[in-house]
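Teaching assistant's notes for section 4

Start the section by putting this record on the projector. Ask students to predict, before seeing the second block, whether Peptidase will look compact or extended. Collect guesses on the board.
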Amino acid sequence: MAAGALTSGSLVALPAEAGTGPGAFYGQRVQWHGCALNADDTAGTELDAAGAQCADITVPLDYRRPGRRTITVAVSRIKATDPAHRIGPLMINLGGPAIPVRDIIDDAAAAMGPTGAKFDLIGMDVRFSGRSTPIDCGWPASWIPRSAGADRESFDRMVALSKDLAKRCGRTSGDLLAHASSANIARDMDVVRAVLGAPRLSYLGYSYGSYIGAMYTQLFPRNAGRIVLDSAIDPQDAGVHLRDAQGFEKRDALREWATLAAGADGQLGLGDTPEKVLGVIDGIYAAAARTPLKVGRYEVDDTVMPALLVDNLADDNEENALQLASFVVQLRTAADTGRVTPDEALEAAVAGIVGGARSAFHSGQTAIECADAAVPRSVEWYRRDVGSRRAADPLFGTLNRVNPCAFWPAAPAPVVRIGNGTPALIVHADGDLDATPALNRRMHAALTGSRLVTLNGARTHGVYLFRGDGCVDATVNAYLDTGALPAADLTC
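Reveal the predicted structure now:
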């Protein structure tokens, strides 16, 4: 590389010979290299063993002023292992937003099998995440996926936490926050496409990654290849999704689980009817609202307790059901006795919310959400909103309602409205609690050239490759293999 060599995780100068216009980034020379940074880099070592290559690609911090400051995005590549049928690059995004993908592209290659072998599989850590230039606000705890709790005092604690987290980001990363939008991530993707020398970029995006994929089709329709959006969100409700109201779906899923738990009362001791099991959970919530539960070295109050239930409700498989049962049994012990020594899984779940170990991930995630859409800035608005939602569903109704974006030190990016005819395949499960059928239908309506594939009778988030459904996987693979969408929407 020439002067200004690319360094993951740093702010760098644009190579001098590249010029200063946005098009200059498309022609940059990038050196592919091994992925392991050192002998202790397990993920990088596994990538190297799988034949992957890695690179750090320079992009503008601000696409409106490309001649100024630059950042890097970290990418990995596994070249097509079926070169005779090579289609081109396929970028994978796992949503979050801000879930790093660079280090797991080898897992994607193994999961996709013969279809994946036809693509150069690309993992990109989106700007401000993973091994790309990071945002880390030094957060001691997270607001995700907390609730506003049971009463005014809990609400006030969440307001205070949100204000503090926003203030920390302003102090540590204020000059980066305005540039964290999904639109800029899509622009970074197109720089990567050009650096790869590809006329089109195919894309597989899950959850929030569906919005980034839709954004790419909006900004770069001629450059969009085969687009798969799995468990899609409403493209008109990006950011922190204040339009969402999913408490009832979660409560229904909890009742379904409670029915299973009642059938295993001899083992769990939570009650022999669903109502008794739900009563135990309501009792734990009430106890946490009175006095935080001692869970190992952490405290679990009523803003945290509901958050410990929702992840295991997201999928209806046996493993999640058993994990949720274990959590409820342990939390009941804490409620009854004042404390519990948690198992490794519960301790990790609590630490991920009330500890600071995931500060960088939660900081980058929130920065993207706050950049993607404006939110009300009035505490009174949130007080009214929480009050109505709490009355409708005390346990889950106020999850993720009070957030740092209300106090964010940077304005959101200009709105890019999604609406185009670019072909795309949208896949979802009819029981998804996070990307409900209504949200997927809204993405389908916005992308008028799309087809919608619905997996019936399943509660899961992330269907293709994750669920193991032969109908869904075959449909997606056929589209990726041929580029031909199904003739009509279909149900699996």
